[in-house]
């Protein structure tokens, strides 16, 4: 009996041996697994406006940080749109939106600014009847995994929005203003008339500010006239102007048209200052002092003083008394002789060297 029991135990152990050998050794490392790809996070900051027959969507770009695998894994951003009746209930679940919305486009990873900033997408519309548009977006990684939908953006676009005006080229330039003029639009974007027109907004960009400012040059109130004089400019800078028509949109809100054609201007200062004025003279022992008013031009940097004892001498041959430009509106002539009558005139000089006409001639006799 003992012999038979021993045989059975040995047989059982022998049968278990292959399973024991197949088990991994204690503490042995397994082969490395591929890294888990992060799923991008959703954004809550989708915003947008209507402009002409377009809806301009924007949202902040995620910072592409090397340590953030979810951002590094982004391959595109899908944009979705759902057209609803204007009286449809506003609450909507993500599941309902996903089932009913349409993918209208994508922003590729290469278009995402690396240092943050803003991502934009333009949806061009064909409008014929009142509708409410609901937009949302979602990030997609290289494996096709999608983040949750962003916040919903609801817009009720107006169908009858004005076409942009046509700006005349070139603009008019003088020493105090750049003036642009434009022709009114002929119809709305849907071809209808009369034009839905409240006025115009003027925008400007420059080399130092390549994108048009958010606030129009004319402020918050649209212009009624078809001309605008920009007096806040610098010679030597290059400016580009566009004009947008302003229409009445849904809910009493204003809606701008698309940009007009652009007009670029590079004003060069070839305009001399006005002649100095208000000149007077006062004599004292060994000195004749001159006093005059400051020129009204902002770019005047100084003045020159000229003298002669012969009023009939050609002005260009009079003696210039100052070596450097006068920055003050007084001058003391201390190289005079008693009993001699002296004649004076001045010129003004701007920051690019334009010289004014001579001032009136005044005279004074040294005591």
The tally of beta strands, per DSSP, is: 22
Average pLDDT confidence is 88
- Which percent range describes the beta-strand content? 25-35%
Task: Describe the largest sheet.
Answer: 4 strands, antiparallel
Order of helices and strands: HEEHEHEEEEEEEEEEEEEEEEEEE
Q: Quick one: overall form?
A: elongated
* Helix-strand category: mainly beta
Helix content class: under 10%
Strand order of the largest sheet: 4-3-6-7
First CA to last CA: what distance?
A: 155 Å
Quick overview:
This protein is mainly β.
Q: How does this structure look, described?
A:
With 367 residues, the chain is mainly β. Helices cover 9% and strands 35% of the residues. The strands form six sheets. A four-stranded antiparallel β-sheet has the order 4-3-6-7.
What brief labels describe this structure?
four-stranded antiparallel beta sheet, mainly beta, 3 helices, 367 residues, single chain
């Amino acid at each position: 009996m003992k012999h038979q029991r021993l045989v059975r135990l040995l047989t059982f152990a022998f049968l278990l041996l292959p399973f024991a050998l197949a088990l991994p050794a204690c503490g042995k490392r397994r082969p490395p697994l591929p890294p888990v790809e992060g799923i991008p996070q959703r954004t809550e900051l989708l915003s947008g406006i209507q402009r002409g027959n377009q809806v301009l969507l924007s949202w902040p770009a995620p910072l592409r940080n090397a340590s953030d695998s979810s951002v590094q894994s982004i391959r595109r951003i899908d944009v979705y749109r759902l057209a609803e009746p204007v009286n449809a209930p506003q609450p909507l679940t993500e599941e309902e939106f996903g089932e009913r919305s349409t993918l209208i486009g994508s922003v590729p990873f290469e278009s995402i600014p690396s240092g943050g900033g803003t991502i934009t997408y333009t949806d061009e519309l064909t409008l014929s009847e009142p509708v409410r548009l609901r937009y949302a977006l979602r990030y997609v990684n290289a494996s096709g995994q999608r983040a949750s939908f962003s916040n919903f953006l609801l817009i009720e676009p107006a169908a009858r929005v004005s076409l942009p005006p046509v700006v005349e080229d070139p603009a008019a330039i003088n020493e105090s203003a750049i003036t642009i003029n434009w022709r009114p639009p002929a119809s709305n974007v849907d071809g209808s008339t009369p034009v839905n027109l409240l006025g115009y907004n003027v925008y400007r960009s420059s080399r130092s500010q390549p994108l048009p400012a958010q606030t129009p040059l004319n402020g918050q109130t649209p212009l009624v006239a078809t001309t605008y004089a920009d007096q806040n400019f610098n010679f030597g800078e290059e400016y580009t102007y566009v004009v947008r028509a302003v229409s009445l949109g849904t809910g009493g809100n204003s809606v701008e048209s698309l940009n007009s054609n652009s007009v670029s201007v590079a004003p060069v200062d070839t305009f001399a200052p006005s002649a100095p004025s208000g000149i007077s003279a006062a004599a004292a022992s060994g000195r004749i002092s001159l006093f005059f008013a400051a020129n009204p031009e902002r770019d005047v940097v100084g003045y020159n003083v000229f003298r002669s004892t012969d009023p009939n001498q050609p002005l260009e041959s009079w003696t210039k008394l100052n070596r450097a430009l006068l920055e003050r509106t007084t001058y003391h002539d201390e190289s005079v002789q008693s009993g001699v009558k002296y004649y004076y005139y001045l010129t003004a000089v701007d920051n690019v060297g334009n010289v004014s006409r001579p001032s009136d001639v005044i005279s004074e006799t040294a005591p």
